[in-house]
From TrEMBL, chain A:
Heterodimer with SRP14; binds RNA as heterodimer. Component of a signal recognition particle complex that consists of a 7SL RNA molecule of 300 nucleotides and six protein subunits: SRP72, SRP68, SRP54, SRP19, SRP14 and SRP9. Belongs to the SRP9 family. It is found in: Cytoplasm. GO terms for molecular function: 7S RNA binding. It comes from Hucho hucho. Keywords: Cytoplasm, Ribonucleoprotein, RNA-binding, Signal recognition particle. This is Signal recognition particle 9 kDa protein. Its main location: cytoplasm.
TrEMBL record, chain B:
Residues 85-105 are annotated as: Disordered. GO terms for cellular component: signal recognition particle, endoplasmic reticulum targeting. Component of the signal recognition particle (SRP) complex, a ribonucleoprotein complex that mediates the cotranslational targeting of secretory and membrane proteins to the endoplasmic reticulum (ER). SRP9 together with SRP14 and the Alu portion of the SRP RNA, constitutes the elongation arrest domain of SRP. The complex of SRP9 and SRP14 is required for SRP RNA binding. This is Signal recognition particle 14 kDa protein. Belongs to the SRP14 family. Heterodimer with SRP9; binds RNA as heterodimer. Component of a signal recognition particle (SRP) complex that consists of a 7SL RNA molecule of 300 nucleotides and six protein subunits: SRP72, SRP68, SRP54, SRP19, SRP14 and SRP9. Signal peptide: none annotated. It comes from the Eukaryota. The keyword Hydrolase does not apply.
Length: 84, 105
């Protein structure tokens, strides 16, 4: 279960994984205030992508990605997946 | 697992974050939801649920208490809440030589 070193790679891989099978993918956020860190995991139970950070600047990025995935989930099937 | 309305979920989530400020973690899970209310039946049984494409399940837990909600519209309140509470992380420390880059000029 690799922890990605760069946010860019993680975000790209996460979105790609989600788009391959939206129903299987789940996003887990684990926040520890006492330790001051945040971990995000995106998995489809076969592939697992993780990113961990203790930097405040990453919170915004993580929260944006989280929001983006949520938006993809609640939107109708248009947009990314043009399936019949 | 307590299933709540979106607003109550936000309230409870706030409470979870506040409780865990001194110790513990808050785990939030997001997953696309297709509207089924019964488990996947064994083969031979008809599946009768309305497939919904525009919902997702949001769960939160502090290790003991678990809450969840079904989201069908993007809620800005939720993103704001996350950002507001996850504020205990280190601020980026600019190296001291460039600390006055944004000073008024």
């Amino acid at each position: 279960m690799p922890y990605y070193q760069t946010w860019e790679e993680f975000a790209r891989a996460a979105e790609k994984l989600y788009l391959t099978d939206p129903m299987k993918v789940r996003v887990v956020l684990k926040y520890r205030h006492c330790d001051g860190n945040l971990c995000i995991k995106v998995t489809d139970d076969a592939v697992c992508l993780q990113y961990k950070t203790d930097q405040a600047q990453d919170v915004k990025k993580i929260e944006k990605l989280h929001g983006k995935l949520m938006r993809l989930m609640v939107s109708k099937e248009s947009g990314a997946m043009e399936m019949d | 697992m307590v299933l709540l309305e979106n607003d109550s979920f936000l309230t409870e989530l706030t409470r979870l974050f506040q409780k865990c400020r001194t110790s513990g973690s808050v785990a939030i899970t997001l997953k696309k939801y297709d509207g089924r209310t019964k488990p996947v039946p064994r083969k031979g049984h008809p599946v009768n649920y309305e497939p919904a494409d525009n919902k997702c399940l949001l769960r939160a837990s502090d290790g003991k208490k678990k809450i969840s909600t079904v989201v069908s519209l993007q809620h800005h309140a939720y993103s704001n809440l996350l950002r507001a509470h996850m504020d205990g992380l280190k601020k980026k420390d600019k190296k001291s030589k460039s600390k006055k880059t944004k000073a008024t000029q």
